[in-house]
Design brief:
It contains ten helices and ten strands. By secondary structure, it is of the alpha/beta class. It has one domain: Rossmann fold (3-Layer(aba) Sandwich), CATH 3.40.50. Strands 1, 2, 3, 4, 5, 6, 7, 8, 9 and 10 form a ten-stranded mixed sheet that branches. Helix 8 links the parallel strand 8 (211-216) and strand 9. Helix 4 (124-144) packs across helix 5 and helix 4 (124-144) runs antiparallel to helix 7. The radius of gyration is 17 Å and the shape is globular. The protein starts with a strand and ends with a strand. Mean pLDDT is 95; it is low at 271-278.
Length: 280
Amino acid sequence: MILQREDVRLSYFVEGEGPPITVLHGFTQAGRSWREVISKMPAGWKWIVPDLRGHGETQTRHGSPCSMDACMEDLLALWDDLGVERTHLAGYSMGGRLALHVAARRPDRVLSLLTIGAHAGLEEDAREGRRRGDEGLAERIEKEGIEAFVDYWGALPLFAGLQRRGPSYVAQVRAERLQNHVAGLACSLRGMGAGTMEPVWNELGHVTFPCTFVAGQQDHGYVASARRLAATVPNGKFEIVPRAGHAAHQERPDAFARLLASHLAAATATGVSAPSSTFD
């Protein structure tokens, strides 16, 4: 389905009936990357799954920003169009940072929050170096093209855990990444990279809805980020997915689906919260 806005044709799909949960994909992915997890979840949820700016089948007008604020406005417009006042919100990596941005800036639209492999922004002394790195990656993709960039990106140690699912799954992930476009990914790197993102750590203290912050056991930097996030919000907890790296929901989808189901059950049970734990 398409939501037409002034500067974007936002592609999305909706699946199921029940309380809404919006899920946000990572860099080089699209909404379709969530289908496996959705298939493993219990019935009774309405899944709202967009392709974020710069990705998938979403099309932006030339010169339009691929930024956290622009994507947040897309989500608000989508929820308004669907008649969704508040939604559970989950996001992975770049999508997790966007989810944190939305939770901090528009907590009135969020019922609960779950992130995978995410942080709420880099410290100031690290941001400039990361911005330069993302600009270099944007120039690389513009020079070398989508296929060379996807092969470079997929070979990063960050995604080594996907190899455990076998060559056919790795090929599927690669094929999905190849459906993106040079201009979109370059725009996303420049506008939504970790160096460009305005940190929202200091804004999360007023987020009172249930929050779960997930990291793969082998994704050490993001384990630390998940712990810090859980300590930052009043009603936060962290979860570790054993034997998983950065893309924990793809590396171990069954374990992650159980974790997500537990988070949603706790978030919808008034006055009930689940302890921090490790989901096997």
